[in-house]
């Protein structure tokens, strides 16, 4: 007669992994609209760099990382290591900002404060969540953010 093994613990189900993600697009603002928040005629900047900074309820930096946009100027910043420690006050919508760091384009590398890309763009929720049986990513939006050319000719464009 076979002896049935005795379980001291119930079998565990895999834990669901949860991520916080920030996404956005980086542009080169047209000279015609320099100084405004208009992106009319703007082109995306491949490989532009941005930073995500989060501060805790005591205004101390709790997370910082730089990210590089893809070939379409889009960045998908997975906040690996970001922890919520004080609920609402440490929530990404209140705690995190995105700033422009650098543009690889010599012809468009001056940071603008469009959507507060210099001061720190606040995040917004657009209700985006990626879900699978063992994974969830809550995605927040930043920007769009923009660099501009250092000098613009009288021809504007």
Describe it:
The chain is mainly β. Helices cover 3% and strands 41% of the residues. The protein has one helix and eleven strands. It has one helix spanning 92-95; strands spanning 17-28, 43-44, 49-55, 61-68, 74-78, 96-102, 110-111, 121-122, 124-132, 135-141, 145-148. Strands 1, 2, 5, 7, 9, 10 and 11 form a seven-stranded mixed sheet that branches. Strands 4-3-6-8 form a four-stranded antiparallel sheet. A hairpin with a 5-residue loop joins strand 3 and strand 4 (61-68). The model has no long low-confidence stretch (mean pLDDT 87).
Give the N-terminus to C-terminus distance in angstroms. Answer: 86 Å
Number of strands: 11
Radius of gyration based on Cα positions: 21 Å
What is the residue-mean pLDDT, rounded to a whole number?
87
List the topology elements.
Elements: E1 17-28, E2 43-44, E3 49-55, E4 61-68, E5 74-78, H1 92-95, E6 96-102, E7 110-111, E8 121-122, E9 124-132, E10 135-141, E11 145-148
Parallel strand pairs: 1-10, 1-11
Antiparallel strand pairs: 1-2, 1-5, 3-4, 3-6, 6-8, 7-11, 9-10
Key words describing this protein structure:
Pollen Ole e 1 allergen and extensin family protein, 41% strand, 11 strands, 7-stranded mixed sheet, 4-stranded antiparallel sheet, 3% helix, signal, mainly beta, single chain, 157 residues
Question: What's this model, at a glance?
Answer:
With about 160 residues, the protein is mainly β. It contains 1 helix and 11 strands, in the order E-E-E-E-E-H-E-E-E-E-E-E. It holds the Pfam family Pollen_Ole_e_1.
């Amino acid at each position: 007669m076979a002896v049935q093994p005795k379980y001291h613990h119930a079998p565990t189900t895999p834990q669901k992994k949860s991520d916080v993600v920030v996404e956005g697009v980086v542009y080169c603002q047209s000279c015609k609209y320099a100084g405004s928040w208009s992106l009319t005629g703007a082109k995306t900047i491949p490989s532009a760099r941005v930073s995500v900074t989060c501060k805790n309820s005591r205004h101390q930096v709790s997370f910082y990382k730089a990210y590089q946009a893809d070939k379409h100027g889009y960045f998908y910043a997975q906040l690996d290591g970001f922890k919520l420690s004080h609920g609402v006050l440490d929530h990404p919508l209140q705690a995190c900002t995105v700033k422009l760091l650098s543009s690889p384009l010599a012809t468009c590398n001056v940071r603008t404060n469009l959507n507060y890309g210099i001061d720190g763009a606040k995040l917004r929720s657009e209700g985006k969540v990626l879900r699978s049986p063992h994974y969830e990513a809550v995605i927040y939006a930043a920007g769009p953010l923009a660099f501009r050319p250092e000098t613009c000719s009288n021809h504007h464009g």
